[in-house]
Amino acid sequence: MGLNTIRDHVDNNFKENPDYNFITCPYTKKRITNKNLKVNLEKIYSYLIQKKKLKKNSIICTLSENSLSGLQLMLGIMYSGMINVPLNLVAGVEQLSYIIKHSEAKILFSTKSNLHLARNIIEKSNLKIELIEIDKNNFADSLEDIKKKETVELNGSDNALLMYTSGTTGKPKGVMLTHDNILNGGKNVQLSHNLNKSDKALCVLPLYHINGLIVTVMGPLVSNSSLVLCEKFSATNFWYEISEFKCTWFSIVPTIVSSLINKYSENEFKLINTSLIKFGRSASAALAPETHKNFEKKFKINLIETMGLTETCAPILSNPADPSKIKYGSPGIAYGNDVKILDDNFIEVKRNEIGQICVRGKNVMKEYYKNPEETKKSFYKDWLLTGDLGLMDDDNFVFVKGRIKELIIKGGENISPREIDDVLYQHPNVLEAAAYGIKCNHYGEKIEAGIVLKERKKSTEDEIIKHCINHLGKFKSPDKVYFFDELPKGSSGKIQRLKIKELI
């Protein structure tokens, strides 16, 4: 019998190794074994079906920080044959009210710390939706163990997760993902990083984001390994948590990479035992080659750049596990799916030519929920059109050149903002950077950039622009540079370059 659903994997891990610790929680020191997990998910299953009278495919929202209750509730909803909608804690009330209205959710579960937000969301949506408060640590423990079970049949094609995109260019789109999609996302993580039963992931990214949920939860679930669930990322605690809980790998985003480089001195780091770490993983946004090299030089840890989308259950590309085979500036090669570079006529371009990055595989979404037009626009046959520009070299490594919508067109020439970003990151004083286009009567668009300087570092606008001119020439260099304490970011930590204009 195949393992086609989340329920199959939870039940199988219980049979194979019931006493193995699947989840460890640093702030409570509590551990959830495979046996505990199965018991708790069955309790949630019975609670939803028998007490709340919900049916298969019922849609349920969760509003929770990373917590034992939040994670087990998310898994329990999917285990029960229902559809989970994880709500982004940093999204605004307007966006979240749209999501619960659009999803037609039956229940909103919220931890105590988020109740005020939950009530505002419901009020704004003008919906009658049941709000249930949960303790962030022991929700499942509070439920009755109902002996009489009702059976809900599950298969891989059943819907499991409805995750909404950030909506930076319009209303959020609901990405409908099946059990097959989710599990194959986890398998791609296992395949690309050679995960086995002895591995332990540090999870610091939010579970309401695809990277946190698929990479550091589903990766361990399908490989029958384990995770350490942190409530949130802390630069101060990061390496100590890895050391204390004997983690072998971690998944972070470029802003965290920069934060760690800036936070720790080499002398501080030498005091921390990181001998068990096999690799770190960077995803969700482009990692500047200079930042990548600085991280590896400082911490002596292999950092693997990857690329994924909500629509593909996170990973589609990854650099190889072997550090001698990685290519800086590239998120790698395809693992577990097919990737092609297509032109505007959907014809595959030649190697090293730029086109749109397209992907197909079992990890690719079913559809945009209640949005057939966007679904149709996003596919060519069975190929998902990512909206990312890139090229594939002779070794099958993909190099991302930017988003189609973010492309700067100056004087009729297409300029990738990524190219400018990479040069900005080469400046020794720059911590974060993002270039963008702005309307210009003469060229159509001119180039500007927003940057954040490293702590206690100073630079002038002229100095930054001259640095760019030296590397790029005047035409591709920013005409104006703005300094910020922080650049606007999405829930994954990805810099939202088009929002910088709103801050000026």
Give a short synopsis of this structure:
By secondary structure, the protein is of the alpha/beta class.
Question: Please, could you describe this protein's structure?
Answer:
With 504 residues, this protein is α/β, with parallel strands linked by helices. Strands 2-1-10-9-11-12-13-14-15 form a nine-stranded mixed beta sheet, sandwiched between helices. Strands 16, 17, 19, 20 and 21 form a five-stranded antiparallel beta sheet that branches. α1 (6-16) packs antiparallel against α2 and α9 crosses α11 (289-299). It has helices at residues 6-16, 34-51, 68-79, 93-103, 115-125, 179-193, 210-223, 238-244, 254-263, 266-270, 289-299, 372-377, 417-425, 461-472; strands at residues 21-24, 31-33, 59-63, 83-86, 107-111, 130-134, 159-164, 174-178, 200-203, 226-229, 249-252, 279-282, 303-309, 314-318, 333-334, 338-342, 355-360, 367-368, 379-380, 383-392, 398-403, 408-410, 413-415, 430-440, 444-453, 480-483.
Residues in helices, as a percent range? 25-40%
How many domain units?
3
Mean pLDDT: 93
Structural class: alpha/beta
CATH class of the largest domain: Alpha Beta
Computed over alpha carbons, the radius of gyration is 23 Å
Identify the strand order in the major beta sheet: 2-1-10-9-11-12-13-14-15
CATH-level-4 superfamily name of the largest domain: ANL, N-terminal domain
Number of strands: 26
**At CATH's second level, what is the architecture of the largest domain?**
3-Layer(aba) Sandwich
Percent strand = 25-35%
Please summarize the sheet with the most strands.
9 strands, mixed
The tally of helices reads 14
Question: Could you say what the CATH topology of the largest domain is called?
Answer: Rossmann fold
Could you list the spans in which at least 5 consecutive residues all have pLDDT below 50? none
Our measurement of the CA-to-CA distance between the termini, rounded to an integer number of angstroms, reads: 58 Å
Shape field: globular
